[in-house]
Amino acid sequence: MDYKKDFKEYYVPKKIEIIDIPRMSFFMIDGQGNPNGKDFAQVVGALYSLAYAVKMSPKKNAAPDGYFEYTVFPLEGVWDLTNLGKTMAELDKNQLVYNMMIRQPDFVTPDYARQMIEQVKKSKPNQKLDGVRFESTTEGLCAQMMHIGPYDDEPASFTRMEEFTKQSGFFRLNKTHREIYLSDPRKVDPQKMRTVLRFKIQKIG
């Protein structure tokens, strides 16, 4: 299973669009602060260590029932601007509130997720693993688009999304939004980075 092919409607949008996002399961960690700091790097490291522990589980004879070969899903983050009182262009990144996550295949159950968390705590200690939870969520109706370029240029893309949303007869529900990171900023030119942007919407009237 390759998420870019089998679930391309959720991960490879070709234009601004309205989409209904179904229930999905994730390893996730809540946090606050600048995403360029060491604390955030530990959060990301903890999530990837879990994601790859699940993927590589057959090599340790620890695969769950129903396991199949798949591509690890990308890192995602839900960012909350509700209590900051600022626009995205004026943000103090040290005050950002986030929920970072990596989606898991349907064969990962809550019990198996707990086993993986305990296993990774022993094999790859990381204090952020204490804050990991496995949870299923349903985003529902959303607007989304593919943002090409640096993260700091995202406000312009959100403005386009909000205009499209209004023209389509919807309104944005709140100041939270989701980012899905398809590019590794350590390896990709900032002008070519690809990030799916998404926020929840509701029909007007």
Please provide a written account of the structure.
- The model has no long low-confidence stretch (mean pLDDT about 95).
- The chain is built from five helices and seven strands.
- With about 200 residues, it is of the alpha+beta class.
- It has one domain: Multidrug-efflux Transporter 1 Regulator Bmrr, Chain A, CATH 3.20.80.
- How are strands sequenced across the largest beta sheet? 1-3-2-6-7-4
CATH topology, anyone?
Multidrug-efflux Transporter 1 Regulator Bmrr, Chain A
Shape: globular
| The number of domains | 1
Calculate Rg over CA atoms: 17 Å
What is the CATH first-level class name?
A: Alpha Beta
**Secondary-structure element string:** HHEHEEHEHEEE
The CATH architecture: Alpha-Beta Barrel
Structure summarized in a few sentences:
The protein has helices spanning 3-6, 8-11, 38-55, 110-123, 154-167; strands at 17-32, 75-80, 97-104, 133-148, 170-172, 176-181, 194-203. It has 205 residues and is α+β, with helices and mostly antiparallel strands. The radius of gyration is 17 Å and the shape is globular.
Indicate the topology.
Blueprint (H helix, E strand, L loop, with lengths): L2 H4 L1 H4 L5 E16 L5 H18 L19 E6 L16 E8 L5 H14 L9 E16 L5 H14 L2 E3 L3 E6 L12 E10 L2
Antiparallel strand pairs: 1-3, 1-4, 2-3, 2-6, 4-7, 5-7, 6-7
Descriptors:
205 residues, alpha+beta, Multidrug-efflux Transporter 1 Regulator Bmrr, Chain A, 6-stranded antiparallel beta barrel, 7 strands, globular
